[in-house]
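Q: What residues go here?
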């Protein structure tokens, strides 16, 4: 279950859509609602639109919206014998199927809103019918056929190719035209989403002996990787691949500091190392102050320069900071460095034997 909000207010006052998808048959229901609906009103719609058609589900997956975490909704599902499961920001794939349906529906509605304006709610049943009767690659059939065991039979010849010949009221012809429009936009939306997936999809594989970086950003690693929240790097390593485990998992040669971490990782957590594998990305803690800041200091002077004005000459130094590479070096004033970091010039005098005064 999920909500699509932010739509223009329809003639009936609805400004959101309640999307409910069956995980097995992929059948989806699009229910127009108001964002101001109470949980009691949503429960009434749930019983009349879902339970009456499909019965009581065993599990409901949703986000942690206020409608789904209310006491009334929790007590209602407990009485019906339904278990509630909530997705989190660290496991968004839990509710990924509904999110994919939402993307397709939003693409269709975006075009419908541009065409129909505030009457988008009238085209919503056609969008639901078009989605449930469209071919699904994962099912090898349409969701309607997976649910009822047969193809949808309609007097409008929607499943046939070519121009249909309808002999009936004008309303049937109008419905057929609306369905053709929705079906074409559904194909366009599916093609667009497929192109987005193809752009980001990486058909990569690794061999034992190669070096890869390990992704640690999705993991709350205070116990596993000893890294703190937002200051944690996205990748650490590189680490050598020891062996392959299955088709999409690899065993890594982790250092002793990570001995308490399981050494087999999914391929989605790895990135190939194309630079010097001897250059390690540190996974040690950064000394964070109570106000969530940390101190940095320059460690090396790379270049020097002068800027002449009408009255004086200002000297600048390009310095490299700790926890940063040379490409991230910055230009700082001479007086600032001598006041805040006098040790830098002492180290430079000892190492280079140069006088910067």
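A:
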């Amino acid at each position: 279950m999920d909500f699509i909000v932010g739509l223009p207010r329809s003639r009936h006052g609805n400004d959101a859509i309640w999307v409910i998808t069956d995980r097995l048959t992929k059948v989806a229901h699009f229910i127009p609602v108001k964002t101001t609906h109470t949980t009691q009103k949503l429960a009434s719609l749930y019983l009349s639109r879902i339970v009456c058609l499909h019965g009581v589900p065993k599990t409901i997956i949703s986000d942690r919206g206020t409608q789904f975490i209310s006491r009334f909704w929790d007590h209602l599902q407990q009485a019906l014998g339904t278990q509630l499961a909530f997705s989190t920001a660290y496991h968004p794939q839990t509710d990924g199927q509904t999110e994919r349906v939402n993307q397709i529906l939003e693409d269709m509605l975006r075009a419908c809103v541009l065409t129909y304006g505030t009457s988008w709610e009238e085209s919503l049943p056609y969008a639901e019918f078009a989605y449930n009767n469209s071919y699904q690659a994962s099912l090898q059939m349409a969701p309607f056929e997976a649910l009822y065991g047969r193809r949808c039979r309609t007097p409008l010849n929607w499943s046939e190719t070519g121009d249909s010949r309808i002999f009936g009221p004008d309303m049937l012809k109008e419905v057929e035209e609306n369905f053709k429009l929705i079906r074409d936009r559904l194909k366009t939306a599916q093609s667009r989403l497929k192109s987005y997936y193809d752009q980001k999809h990486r058909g990569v594989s690794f061999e034992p002996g190669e070096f890869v970086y390990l992704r640690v950003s999705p993991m709350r690693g205070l116990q596993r990787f000893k890294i703190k929240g937002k200051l944690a790097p996205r990748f650490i390593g590189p680490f050598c691949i020891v062996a392959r485990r299955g088709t999409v998992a690899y065993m890594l040669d982790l250092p002793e500091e990570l001995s308490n971490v399981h050494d087999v990782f999914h391929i989605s957590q790895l990135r190939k190392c194309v630079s010097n594998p001897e250059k390690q990305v540190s996974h040690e803690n950064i000394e964070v102050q109570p106000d969530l800041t940390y101190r940095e200091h320059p460690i090396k002077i790379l270049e020097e320069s002068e800027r002449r004005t009408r009255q004086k000459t200002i000297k600048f130094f390009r310095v490299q900071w700790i926890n940063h590479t040379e490409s991230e070096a910055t230009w700082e004033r001479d007086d600032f460095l001598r006041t805040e970091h006098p040790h830098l010039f002492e180290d430079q005098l000892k190492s280079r034997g140069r006088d910067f005064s």
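A: Context that may help when evaluating the design: The radius of gyration is 30 Å. The chain has a mean pLDDT of 76.
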